[in-house]
Amino acid sequence: MRRLRYPHLFFEVSFNGSWAQYIDSSVRVLTTGMFSFWSSSRTFPGPLPASPFQAFFKHHEVDATHCYCAYPEAMVTMVRSALALEQRLDMFAHRAENIPADRFDTAWEAFLEDAQEFL
Amino acid sequence: MRSPNIAGQTYALMVWTPIRPGAEDALRAHLEGLGHRASPLAKLPRTHMARWLIVPDMPVAPRTHARDPLGDQYLLFTSNFDGDVDSYLHELVELMAEEAAAIWSHCIGCPQTAEGAALKAYLHRNQVDSGFAFAAYGDASVARVKTALDKRTRLIDFVVRAQEMAPAQRRKAFLKEFGGG
């Protein structure tokens, strides 16, 4: 085993979609934040323009040999929606037990309107 | 002080272990042969996401002279899971004992009998702390995420079916599907 000459920054991330989309959107959202994370790294070209930054990332990337996700079919937005929806659904299900049959449809439609953005 | 490995109730674990010279290809072949659907990591129900990487060397950017050879190749294991690291490593060496032994026995310093408390201590010893950890839904456990995803799928299906139901039937069917919780 060898003692390294420099400290190395290790960045690990799991995301949805393509590699290029992820890097591109990260740069757009976190333009100044990127300096905080990477400006201490040798050869960091700055987040913009995107092309040298993408090349910097690509060059330092190490592929996973085996990876696992407990719910591989779900995107982050889907998980967040499902978690927000669950709270509303559980509350409505609890309330529905006391809603008379002739008023259920009105309550059901109001629930769907509230929950629509999470479906 | 709060551990830098924690985001919400999830823990970001990172373990670096040097691979025995000459064992790199066998370990890579073993890991690549694990497949994805039948991953041994599915035996650890608190695991959100995890991976093994073989790091052959530290990358060096083009046109620089900042080479920093790693020496040996390293096996990097990372996992994001619910709860504390001590009980997770205990589960790892117990619930996927055979698979863990088959992987880390390729590494320098791994106990000759790669199992139980000795393997757990080896993994603990080779842990590297995060500087910063982030989780998009760090307060939700694996079980809660799976339940919520399942309910969302069932509700979407129910909404479609409910359109064909008579009003009285709709309430009854809804309570049958989602009530009693």
Report on this structure:
- The complex is a heterodimer of chains A (119) and B (181).
- The model of chain A has no long low-confidence stretch (mean pLDDT 91).
- With 119 residues, chain A is mostly helical.
- The longest helix of chain A is centred in the C-terminal third of the chain and has 21 residues, at 76-96.
- Chain A starts with 18 loop residues before the first helix and ends with a helix.
- Helices cover 55% and strands 3% of the residues of chain A.
- By secondary structure, chain B is an alpha+beta fold.
- Chain B contains six helices and four strands, in the order ββαββααααα.
- In chain B, strands 1-2-4-3 form a four-stranded antiparallel sheet, covered by helices on one side.
- In chain B, a hairpin with a 2-residue loop joins strand 1 (6-7) and strand 2.
- The longest helix of chain B is centred in the last third of the chain and has 21 residues, at 142-162.
- Chain B is elongated.
- Chain B starts with 5 loop residues before the first strand and ends with a helix.
- Chains A and B meet through helix 3, strand 1, helix 4 and helix 5 of A and helix 1, strand 3, strand 4, helix 5 and helix 6 of B.
